[in-house]
C-alpha cells in the first residue's frame, strides 16, 4: 500500500526479514473446538489473529452496524519474496502490525485481510473474520482514507509495479473476493484498487491492470455485471447539471458553495480542499478519485444535498421529480424508471454505478 504526498510507504522494504477459519460462499461452517478452526466446503482458509500471534489492539476495535459497500485491493510494497512458507506469512503479519501500531500509532493492523506470497490468507484487524462470517457488520479499518467505514481492505504481499502476482496468489485473491461479495452482497464491480481513491501507486501497475479480470472472475461466480463505474473529468470552466451534482456533493461534505452549475474559482477551491482532506491527488480536477470519494449509496428515506443531486440529474435525463432533497416514493419511482432505461438493476437505490450513469 504505497502512497504519495501526505502518506509515506506503507512499510519500509528493509523491514521484511526474509484459530484458522475456512470459509466459503454459501457453505455451512462447522466449528472444531479442539483445533480452534472451522471448515467449510469452499473459499480460502483464513488464519485468525490468534493463530498468527497478533498483539492485542491498543484500544477497542469498533464494529459498525452497517455492511461494507466495496472491496479495496492493496499491495504491501515489500519484496517479492520466494519464501512461500506459513512462517514467512506470519512474519509479514507481525511486521505490518508492528509498523502500523508503533510507527503510525493506529490501534491495530489497518487492513481486514492479508494474502501472503505463499497464498496464506490472514486476518488483519481483530474481529474481521467474525464480522465477515455474520455478513451484516464490518470492522472499522485504517487502510484507505475516506473509505474505512465502507470498504473491506485486502493487502497482497509484494510489489506489483512490474510483475504480476503468482497464479496461486491471484486465485486465492479471487476466492477471498468471492466469499466477501457473497457474504455482504457486494457486486463485483465494486472491487477497486487503492489508487482509485488516493494519490498512490498502490496496488502497482500490474496488479491494478488485473482488476478488470478480477472483477470478471468474481462476477462469473457471484453473478452480475463486472463493469466498473466511469466518471467524467470536470475542471475550471465546465458548466451544466453534472457540475451542479459535483457542487451538491461537495456541500454535502461540508463545503460552503453556491450550487449554480458553473465550475469557477470557488468550486475549484472546494475540490482542492476536498482532495487534500481525503489524500487524493490535489489538482482541482474532479475525476476518478474525487468522484469515488464523494459518492455513496442514496436510497428511500435519505435527505440532503446528495438527494438533490440525484433529483436534478433525473430531471435532466427526462425523468422529472421535485428537487427537494427528500428521497420519498416519487424519487424512488423515478430512480427505478431511470435504471430500467439504462439496463441497470431496477432496485431504486442510487449506488455507484447508477451515480455514474447519471453524471456521464
Number of strands: 11
Mean pLDDT: 90
Number of helices: 12
Radius of gyration: 21 Å
Reading the helices and strands in chain order gives EEEEHEEHEEHEEHEHHHHHHHH
Beta content: 5-15%
* Global structural class: alpha/beta
Instruction: Characterize the largest beta sheet: strand count, sense, and whether it forms a barrel.
Output: 7 strands, mixed
Range of helix content:
25-40%
Low-pLDDT runs: 2-41
From the spread of the alpha carbons, the general shape counts as globular
| Strand order of the biggest β-sheet | 1-4-8-7-10-6-11
The end-to-end distance, rounded to whole angstroms, is: 30 Å
List the helices and strands and how they pair.
Layout: E1 20-22, E2 30-32, E3 37-39, E4 45-47, H1 49-52, E5 63-64, E6 70-75, H2 86-103, E7 113-115, E8 121-123, H3 128-134, E9 138-139, E10 151-156, H4 167-184, E11 191-193, H5 205-209, H6 211-222, H7 241-252, H8 265-277, H9 288-294, H10 305-316, H11 329-341, H12 352-359
Parallel strand pairs: 4-8, 6-10, 6-11, 7-10
Antiparallel strand pairs: 1-4, 2-3, 5-9, 7-8
Helix pairs in contact: 4-6, 7-10
Keywords:
single chain, 360 residues, alpha/beta, two-stranded antiparallel sheet, 10% strand, disordered N terminus
Please explain how this structure is put together:
The chain is an alpha/beta fold and 360 residues long. 36% of the residues lie in helices and 10% in strands. The protein contains 12 helices and 11 strands. The strands form 3 sheets. Strands 1-4-8-7-10-6-11 form a 7-stranded mixed β-sheet, with helices on both faces. It has a two-stranded antiparallel ribbon with strand order 2-3. The chain has a two-stranded antiparallel sheet with strand order 5-9. The two termini are 30 Å apart.
Amino acid at each position: 500500500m504505497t502512497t504519495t504526498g501526505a502518506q509515506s510507504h506503507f512499510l519500509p522494504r528493509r523491514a521484511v526479514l526474509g484459530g484458522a477459519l475456512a470459509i466459503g460462499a454459501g457453505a455451512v461452517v462447522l466449528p472444531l473446538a479442539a483445533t480452534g478452526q472451522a471448515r467449510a466446503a469452499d473459499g480460502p482458509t483464513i488464519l485468525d489473529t490468534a493463530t498468527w500471534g497478533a498483539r492485542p489492539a491498543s484500544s477497542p476495535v469498533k464494529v459498525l452496524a452497517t455492511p461494507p459497500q466495496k472491496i479495496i485491493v492493496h499491495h504491501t510494497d515489500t519484496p517479492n519474496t520466494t519464501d512461500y512458507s506459513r512462517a514467512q506469512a506470519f512474519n509479514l503479519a507481525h511486521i505490518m502490525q508492528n509498523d502500523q501500531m508503533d510507527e503510525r500509532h493506529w490501534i491495530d493492523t489497518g487492513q481486514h485481510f492479508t494474502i501472503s506470497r505463499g497464498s496464506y490468507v490472514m486476518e488483519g484487524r481483530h474481529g474481521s473474520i467474525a464480522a465477515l462470517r455474520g455478513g451484516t457488520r464490518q470492522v472499522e479499518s485504517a487502510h484507505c482514507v475516506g473509505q474505512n467505514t465502507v470498504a473491506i481492505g485486502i493487502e497482497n504481499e509484494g510489489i506489483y509495479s512490474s510483475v504480476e502476482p503468482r497464479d496461486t496468489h491471484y486465485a486465492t485473491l479471487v476466492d477471498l473476493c468471492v466469499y466477501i461479495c457473497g457474504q455482504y452482497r457486494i457486486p463485483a464491480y465494486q472491487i477497486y484498487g487503492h489508487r482509485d481513491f488516493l494519490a498512490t501507486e498502490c496496488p502497482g501497475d500490474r496488479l491494478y491492470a488485473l482488476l478488470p479480470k478480477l472483477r470478471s472472475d468474481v462476477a462469473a461466480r457471484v453473478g452480475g455485471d463486472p463493469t466498473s463505474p466511469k466518471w467524467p473529468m470536470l475542471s475550471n470552466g465546465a458548466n451544466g447539471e453534472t457540475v451542479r451534482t459535483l457542487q451538491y456533493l461537495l456541500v454535502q461534505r461540508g463545503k460552503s458553495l453556491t450550487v449554480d452549475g458553473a465550475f469557477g474559482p470557488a468550486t475549484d477551491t472546494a475540490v482542492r480542499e476536498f482532495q487534500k482532506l481525503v489524500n487524493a491527488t490535489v489538482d482541482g480536477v474532479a475525476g476518478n478519485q474525487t468522484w469515488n470519494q464523494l459518492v455513496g449509496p442514496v436510497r428511500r428515506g435519505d435527505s440532503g444535498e446528495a438527494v438533490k443531486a440525484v433529483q436534478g440529474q433525473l430531471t435532466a435525463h427526462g425523468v422529472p421529480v421535485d428537487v427537494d432533497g427528500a428521497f420519498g416514493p416519487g424519487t424512488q419511482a423515478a430512480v427505478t424508471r431511470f435504471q430500467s432505461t439504462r439496463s441497470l438493476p431496477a432496485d431504486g437505490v442510487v449506488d455507484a454505478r447508477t451515480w455514474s450513469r447519471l453524471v456521464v
